[in-house]
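STRUCTURE:
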């Protein structure tokens, strides 16, 4: 089974297998705070600017247009 590329800590990313490049599922028990690289201790005191930057970096990495030439 191919290993996942880690964006930072425990976030999902495209498969590291160069033939696959499929976005991998988030592991059970991982919450959105972890996916977005926020404090693992859930709080509503979030730096919105930082959250936006992290979201767009992840979105750019796994956006479907990045795989438009993938034949699989």
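SEQUENCE:
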């Amino acid at each position: 089974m191919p290993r996942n590329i880690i964006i930072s800590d425990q976030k999902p990313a495209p498969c590291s297998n160069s033939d696959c490049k499929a976005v991998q599922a988030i592991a059970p028990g991982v919450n959105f705070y972890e996916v977005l690289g926020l404090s693992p201790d859930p709080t509503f005191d979030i730096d919105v600017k930082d959250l936006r930057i992290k979201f767009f970096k992840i979105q750019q990495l796994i956006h479907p247009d990045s795989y438009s030439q993938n034949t699989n």
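REMARK: Confidence is low (pLDDT under 50) at residues 1-11.
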